[in-house]
Design brief:
The chain is an alpha+beta fold and 578 residues long. The chain has 4 domains: 20-70 and 85-109, no CATH class; 115-222 and 269-311, no CATH class; 226-268 and 316-454, no CATH class; 482-567, no CATH class. 29% of the residues lie in helices and 11% in strands. The protein is built from 17 helices and 14 strands. The strands form 4 sheets. Strands 4-5-8-10-9 form a 5-stranded mixed sheet. The radius of gyration is 34 Å and the shape is elongated.
Length: 578
Amino acid sequence: MADSGTNSSVGMADVLEALKSIQENQTKLASEVESVSLRLDTLAPSGQVPSLGINKVSAPLAVAPTSPIRTTLAAGEADSGNTSPTTKEATQAQKSGFTSRIILTTYPKQIGINPLPLQWGAPDAVDRGPVVVSRSSSTIRKRNAIGAHGGSYSIYFALALASKQLNANHRPDFTNTEPAANIGPFPQWGDKKKIVAMDPWGHLAPWLFSDVIEKEDVDIRPTIAITKAHMKLPELEESVRRGRLVPDGKVCLNAQGELAVTKFAVEPVWYLPGVAERFGIDEGVLRRSLFEHTGGSYPELITRGDIKVFLPPIGGLTVYCFGDPAKMSDEKSRLALRIHDECNGSDVFGSDICTCRPYLIFGIEEAVKEAQNGGSGVVIYFRKEGRALVVPMKYDAIVGQGIPIHERVELPEDLIPADSRVEIDAKITAGYFTTGNRMTAEELKAVQGRMWEEYSPDIVPRRESSPRPKNAERRRPRLLRACATEPSITTSNACKGLLTSPNTSRRATDLLSRVAISNANSSPSSTRSFALDSSEMREARLSDSTRDPHSVCYFSFPSFDAWEVGEHPDEEKVDRTA
C-alpha cells in the first residue's frame, strides 16, 4: 500500500509537470504565431489583409476574425468566389496601422495570457507588483489591470493613434521626471482596505520596476506625478493687500500673493473589491454595473474576474501642498485641509451664482496660514463637479476612515457673493456645515438672486440709439461703462477700423477728460460731470484703495451718437459696405 501511495504521488507530479510543459510550449507557440501575424500585417499590401491569424491556430485571445471587414454575405448577395477580403474598410484599417483582428476580450488561464502578479495591499512594492494596463504589443498579454492610462484623456490617445499622430508602441521618456518630494511609504500602503482608489506606489513605478521594463519589455507607467510650482491668483494679491496673507518669502513669496506649492497629480486606480466594500455592495454587482453603464466598453470587467484593478475613464485629482510635504503625515503638526470639487463656472469663469471659487480661495488662504505657523496646508482639487454634494458626504467619508477632524471652519459671510445666497442657503438647509442660522423650508422659499432686468443704483441702463435713415452714415459705437479699477474701454457693435485711426488715442484722451464720476454707493442723482487731468484721475482711483475693488468709482463715458464721421475731416474714411 505504501508503494502504491508513493507511485501515485510520483505519477501525479509527473502529470502536473507535463501539463506545465505543455502550457509553456503553447504560450511560446502563441507568441511566435502572434509575431508572425504582426509581421505579415506590416508587410501586406495596402489593399489586402493577411490570411494567417492567430485565431486560426490556437485562439489564445477572444478575437473577431477580421476587422473591420465583413465576414458574411448579405442576404441575396452573390458569392464571387473571392474569399480574400479586399474591401475599402480593410484597406482603411491597414492604412490606420491596425492588424486584421480585434481583440474583444480575454479570459483567465487562457493560452498566451500571463498577467504580472499584483497583490494589492502588500507592504513591499516589489511584492505588491506594478499596475500594468498598456495594450502595446509587448505588454498586452501581461496586463493585470482593466481600463487605460489617462482617465478621460484616453479617448484623445485613441484619436491620436487612429490618425497616426502617435505610434501605438510609443513609450514615454521618464528621464529627470523623478518625484520632486519624497512621500512614504506609510503603514496604510500595506492595508488593502485603507487605499482603494489610487495606487500609493504610483509615483515611483518606472523606477521601482525598471528591471521588469527592461528585461521583459513591459510598458509600466506612473499614475502619480509630483512637482514643485508657483501659484498666482488675482484674489491672493488682494488678500495680501488686506492683510489676510503676509509674505514670508517661503510660502507666500511676495506682495503679489505668489505662493510656493508642491503639486501632486493623481490618476484614479480602483481596487474593485475595496471600492465595492466601501459602497456596501457585491464586487460582481459593481463590475456588471460599470460594464453595462459604460456602454459595454470594458468587457474584461465581466470576463476577467482574476483582474482586480480598474483604471476608470474619469478625471483624477490634484493635491496642492503648502509648506513642508513631510508635515502632512506628522501627527504632531496641524493640517489645514480643503477638499474641493471642480466647478468650471465659478473656479474658472468667476460666476457668482455659487460659492465654489470663494471657498477655494478661502481654503488656500487658510492652508497658507497653517503652513506659515509651522504646520501644513493642503488643497485637494477633484476633477469632477460637486453640485450634488449638498450633504456632508466628504466629511463623513474622511471621518469614516478613522481620520479625526478637530475643527471645521466656515466660509466668512463677506466672501459669499450676493447671487450665491440661493445656493449656499439651500446647502445649509440640506445639512451643510454652519455655525449660524439654518433656514426653514418656508424661509428658504423667499431667497432669490438678482434678475437680468434688475440694475443696481450705480449702473445706468444703456440707452438705445435713435433710429436713423437707411442710407445714413454708420455712427461710432457707444462706449459702455467701465469700472475705474479696470483700465479698459469696451465697445459694442465695433466695426473694423473705427477705433484704429491715427487720432484714436488723442480722442480717447479728450473723452477721458470729460468723464462723469459716480460713487458706487451714491445715487444716480449725485453723479457729477467735470473735467479731470491725469493726476486727478489717479487720485480718484487711489483714494478708495482700501475698499472692495467692485464698489469704487465708475467712469461714465459720453455717447458717440452725435459724433459723425463727416464732422471730423482728419479721420480716415472707413468703407462701411461690408
